[in-house]
Task: inverse folding
């Protein structure tokens, strides 16, 4: 029995050891974003449109769905994100013409619809903040993804914004991409507290009902 217990303990501990030995040496920064922050989602949507959609799309989202979820009307979504050249029912597609990414960057920029689910919000936040200027070459690179073909599109913002404002802007983009990765989270979060409140009331009523049933029963 002791031997079986020892083997089980080793098997449980082994994955942690493997992860520790094979994990990245780069510590991700905490995004500390909140899907409940509607203003952040709106800012993130605008920033994504202004700085990211030249190359990237979120093709599984439509403008009218984004508008409904983050507190806009359809016209605002079309104006703020689509620059008034799309329809509310259109998918959020990149403005880059097909084939241009391969010619200019050496690869086609990925769709970012599921990037937050694939990499995590902390990774996106850290990546956006991870661009560093190489003093020898004078070119930008990213400490999370060395040799990345993605240019530092937020360079002008980083140079001219206050550090806190730049940090908030990158957090807003990460927040928006987390929402895009799983839009139903907003509904789940909104429904969650209502379910908990219902269960609390149900527990109280059940307790009172139990007391009423057993009131005349002698122990």
Result:
């Amino acid at each position: 029995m002791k031997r079986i217990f020892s083997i089980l303990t080793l098997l449980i501990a082994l994955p942690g050891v493997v992860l520790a030995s094979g994990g990245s040496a780069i510590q991700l920064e905490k995004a500390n974003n909140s899907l409940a922050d509607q203003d952040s989602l709106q800012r993130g949507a605008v920033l994504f449109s202004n700085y990211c959609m030249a190359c990237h799309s979120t093709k599984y989202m439509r403008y009218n769905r984004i508008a409904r979820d983050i507190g806009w009307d359809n016209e605002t979504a079309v104006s703020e994100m689509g620059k008034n050249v799309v329809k509310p029912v259109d998918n959020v597609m990149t403005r880059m013409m097909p084939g241009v990414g391969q010619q200019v960057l050496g690869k086609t920029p990925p769709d970012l619809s599921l990037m937050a689910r694939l990499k995590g919000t902390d990774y996106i936040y850290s990546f956006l903040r991870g661009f560093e200027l190489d003093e020898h070459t004078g070119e930008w690179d990213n400490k999370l993804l060395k040799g990345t073909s993605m240019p530092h599109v937020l360079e002008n913002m980083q140079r001219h914004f206050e550090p806190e404002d730049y940090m908030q802007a990158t957090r807003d983009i990460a927040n928006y991409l987390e929402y895009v990765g799983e839009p139903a989270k907003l509904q789940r979060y909104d429904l969650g507290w209502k379910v908990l409140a219902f269960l609390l009331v149900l527990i109280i009523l059940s307790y009172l009902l139990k007391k009423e049933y057993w009131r005349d029963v002698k122990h």
Notes: The beta strands are 58-62, 91-92, 131-133, 140-142. Residues 13-24 have pLDDT under 50 and may be disordered. The chain is about 60% helix and 5% strand.
